[in-house]
Amino acid sequence: MTGSGSVIEKVAFKRRSVRKFRSTRFDVGILMECIDIAKEAPSGSNKQPWHFVIVTDESLKKALRETCEKGEKRFYSHVRGELAEWLKSRNLDWKKDFLTRAPYIIAVFGEKKAPYSRESVWIAVGYLLLALEERGIASLTYTPPNRDEVAGLFNAVDDFRLEVLIPVGYEEGYKIKEPRKKLDEILSFNHFFTREGKN
Ligand SMILES: Cc1cc2nc3c(=O)[nH]c(=O)nc-3n(C[C@H](O)[C@H](O)[C@H](O)COP(=O)(O)O)c2cc1C
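A: This is the predicted complex of the input protein with flavin mononucleotide.
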């Protein structure tokens, strides 16, 4: 940490992806408050090309899980190499029980034709994650391999693409934070450089 002690610093260093949730429900007003913050993100030409859907309905959560797991089974049957190793080391597989276990899911859509749509939507997602963390709500940016198929469950208009499903809730147990690179590994002045000093 830099030691400034700011709220942003604290939540950014503390936030982790959580895949095990308690099913405890809480006031969805908290989620609305966080989305109110996310919508303050910058966007290409200020198009604000995002749409958020809060999923509270158990049967929709079940359908989302079934559809996502169908896509995940296909994905896991093909995945090889470094990614396969990483997934295995984290005990990740096609099962996505967090989609039914988490009390709520926030689906984030982006307007396809807006300028810099994806960049803009993901900045808003970043704001959202920090706002959730600040309120003690754990989250996961889950990107199903079959996002178009999943979008179908929301009757989303064709102009919008599903970017991410974010299950949210209180964490079950505690998972340690994935390590981060050090500042001097990712920062240089005036010239780009690699750790080996090449540019
Ligand atoms: C764009 C993006 C897509 C991601 N997709 C998935 C996903 O589909 N499934 C998953 O379990 N985690 C997903 N993650 C979470 C990452 O695995 C996680 O952020 C990373 O391992 C670092 O861990 P941390 O968030 O706990 O610090 C995604 C993260 C990002 C930013």
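The pocket of flavin mononucleotide is lined by residues 16-17, 19, 92, 140-143, 177-178 (CB under 6 Å). Helices lie at 7-14, 29-38, 58-78, 81-89, 98-101, 117-134, 147-151, 183-186.
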